[in-house]
Design goal:
This protein starts with a helix and ends with a helix. 36% of the residues lie in helices and 26% in strands. The chain is of the alpha+beta class. A hairpin with a 2-residue loop joins strand 2 and strand 3. The longest helix has 33 residues. The radius of gyration is 22 Å and the shape is elongated. It has an 8-stranded antiparallel beta barrel with strand order 1-2-3-4-5-6-7-8. The protein has 2 domains: 90 residues, lambda repressor-like DNA-binding domains (434 Repressor (Amino-terminal Domain), Orthogonal Bundle), CATH 1.10.260; 157 residues, Porin (Beta Barrel).
Length: 258
């Protein structure tokens, strides 16, 4: 009988550890989605201090609190406690104000791969300045400005599109997923960049990381390269695109550097 009770206790502990890890993961996604711990704490009716304990696994919520969270966000309880979710999952159920120009609250650093074959594997740094509808995108060299594009941007239901121009080099475009994690104040993420390449002004398309903080390219080279590379298990593919989970991964990376 004692052995049976011990075995049951071990099984229960294993279940608790698994559920607790998934709960903390999903709680962090909800905090990101709501913007701050304070916002989420207020929304689910607990103190900010208690929410911090949930987040650090120092405490686990009551069944009533879990039921309320699942009801509030229209999430199946089994899914919420057993499946690590992405922010895009919650986006289906949460109505929020339309992302507009106000989400861009500062200048942003940009990082993308050098296309010149002689400098292949290097990573460019640029600055994206946004003032109301006006946009200035500058590509930086070691001590000089390499290229500078100016223009504006538009917001659709799912995308934000930057239309930029330089009289010498022509057009450049940046297309980003309309943010879910950055919906009130844009922190950063990944987008598609189309511009004339360094080598001979032929057009190219690549990924670009946008960040509200400066990233040390040498120290974080491997991580930046991983996010900026296009990879595929097959040699031929019909198109390339950025998935929302990629945008969230880059957002999480930038948050760790804050």
């Amino acid at each position: 009988m004692k052995n049976d009770n011990l075995q049951i206790k071990i099984i229960k502990n294993n279940i608790y550890e698994k559920v607790s890890k998934v709960f903390v993961h999903n709680l962090k996604k909800l905090i990101q989605f709501e913007g701050t711990q304070k916002n989420l704490a207020k929304k689910i009716g607990v103190s900010e201090d208690l929410l911090s304990k949930y987040k650090s696994s120092e405490a686990f919520p009551s069944i009533e609190t879990i039921i309320y969270i699942c009801s509030l966000y229209h999430i199946n309880m089994d899914t919420f406690l057993n499946v690590p979710l992405t922010s895009s999952y919650f986006e289906k159920f949460i109505k929020y104000e339309d992302a507009s120009r106000t989400i861009f609250t500062q200048n942003y650093y940009c990082y993308f791969l050098v296309t010149n074959s002689s400098k292949k594997e290097n990573i460019h740094e640029g600055i994206l300045k946004i003032s109301e509808s006006n946009v200035n995108f500058t590509i930086l060299g070691s001590s000089t400005v390499i290229k500078e594009f100016k223009g504006n941007y538009t917001v659709s239901d799912n995308l934000i599109f930057f239309n930029l121009y330089n009289s010498q080099d022509g057009c450049a475009y940046i297309t980003m997923i309309k943010p879910s994690l950055n919906k009130s104040k844009y922190v950063g993420g990944i987008a598609l960049l189309c511009l004339p390449s360094d080598a001979n002004s032929k057009p190219c398309c690549q990924k670009i990381i946008i960040s509200n903080i400066k990233i040390d390219r040498e120290e974080n080279y491997d991580t930046l390269k991983e996010y900026l590379d296009f990879t595929s298990e097959i040699k031929d593919f019909g198109n390339v695109k950025i998935a929302r989970y990629e945008d969230e991964k880059v957002y999480d990376f930038i948050e760790t550097l804050q």
